Amino acid sequence: MAPAPELASKDFLKIADKLWQDNGSRYKSSPEEYFRDINEMYADQRSFVSLHTSEVLPGYLVSARCMVQNTLAPEFFPLSCTVHKDIEATEMAGCLRDSFGEDIKNVVDHGNHCSRYCYKMVMVPGASEWWINDFNRNQTTASLRTDDDQMEGYSAPGSTKISEFIAKVFDDGTPELKANAVVDVYGYLTAPVHGEGEGDARSESSRHYNVHVLRMTEVCQTAVSSEPTLNASSPSVRSALIREIASVLGNTAAADMFLNFLVSTT
């Protein structure tokens, strides 16, 4: 059985930092292995809180079925740094952070840098209930506690419902996502970043929560046979409509979702 989501998320960064400290020499030459090892540790998707059903706090592991609304400028970040808090020096990974914290006195950059894609994500507009339920069926959707013991180290005043966020995806050579692409995202939620970036990037970051993506899967077109309301003559008509809509939206999954919305509202 998967742990409750607040327990799965607790101390996530400490665990991620310890993993880096134990294997840093290997990860510096191959940071992809760092994400692979973290994903093995958090392979159970029910450890992630669904943004479709739950209010959340920064520091949670979260999941969502969402759509790319806009592509933002990429970010460059240090793979790891030595940070000084009071007299204590600790090595921390930079892969899953926007900053190293306000209480840090000094940061020593180790000189290894990478980049990550940044996408403005929105929950899939008009998605039918059965489609979201298909995503949520493997999620932990129990009500989340908000007591002080739930997420030690996080002082957010209260949980909130999130309908859009900035997804930060490590650049491992995979091509960028296109606008309107529909993806299932699993990652680590952080609070809006204030005072960083320039222009539009700064504006987006200051308004929206960020999700540092651990893994992401593009949603393929749902098979026609999975929709029980279609009659025997519908598949060919449906396929033709999806092709026409996809030629405008540029994405088959988005076209399929939009057609579901039209059918559900007529």
UniProtKB/TrEMBL annotation:
It is found in: Nucleus. GO terms for cellular component: nucleus. It comes from the Eukaryota. Keywords: Nucleus. One of its GO terms (molecular function) is chromatin binding. Belongs to the MCMBP family. This is Mini-chromosome maintenance complex-binding protein. It comes from Nippostrongylus brasiliensis (Rat hookworm).
